[in-house]
Amino acid sequence: MAKRKTVKRRAPRPAFRLTSPDIRPGGPIAMEQVFNSFGCTGKNISPALAWTGTPEGTKSFALLCHDPDAPTGGAGWWHWLVLNIPASATGLAKGAGNADGSGLPAGAVHVNTDFGGPGWGGPCPPQGDKPHRYIFTLYALKVDRLDASGGTASLAGYMVNGNAIGKATLTGKFGRK
């Protein structure tokens, strides 16, 4: 009788997931997160975000929030870009999107949004448009840091995508009647 060889199998890694206590997947974004200008009257507070299942080899994270439904001729609208989030981080606190960066983990930096400055710029779609999608994408990166200082959101996105080893998304919606 031949002896069976036992093979040790590693437990599968959990899926890379991005969640928020403030936004359920596909659900509405609250007025607390909505921009406070351009006819919108929200509080412009960035949502809390958390992630699990970090891919092996992650050296840092980047978070990008984009509205692909914005009427910009196809470019959409960048609402939040954060680079150089330490690999040890497991989330961003509510309000971490303050323009001065004081709510970000040490070493993390904002990139200017399409509002023209750094930090969280909440939803504010044109009145009467169907609800827009706000896609939060967390990228696991193979590098410790990216230098996009003074660059555009598109440049940051290019650099992030070129160094990504995984990504997780969360989509919320907001519209104005």
Short description:
With 177 residues, the protein is mostly beta strands. 6% of the residues lie in helices and 28% in strands. The protein has one helix at 153-163, and strands spanning 17-19, 49-52, 60-67, 77-86, 91-92, 109-110, 132-141, 164-174.
Helices and strands, with pairings:
Layout: E1 17-19, E2 49-52, E3 60-67, E4 77-86, E5 91-92, E6 109-110, E7 132-141, H1 153-163, E8 164-174
Antiparallel strand pairs: 1-2, 2-5, 3-4, 3-7, 4-6, 7-8
Give structural notes.
The chain is mainly beta and 177 residues long. It has one helix and eight strands, in the order E-E-E-E-E-E-E-H-E. The strands form two sheets. The protein has a five-stranded antiparallel β-sheet with strand order 6-4-3-7-8. The protein has a three-stranded antiparallel β-sheet with strand order 1-2-5, with no helix packed on it.
What descriptive keywords fit this protein?
single chain, 177 residues, mainly beta, Phosphatidylethanolamine-binding Protein, three-stranded antiparallel beta sheet
Number of self-contained structural domains: 1
CATH superfamily: PEBP-like
Rg of Cα set: 18 Å
The assigned CATH architecture is Alpha-Beta Complex
Shape assignment: globular
Assembly type of the chains comes to: single chain
CATH class: Alpha Beta
Structural class, by secondary structure, is mainly beta
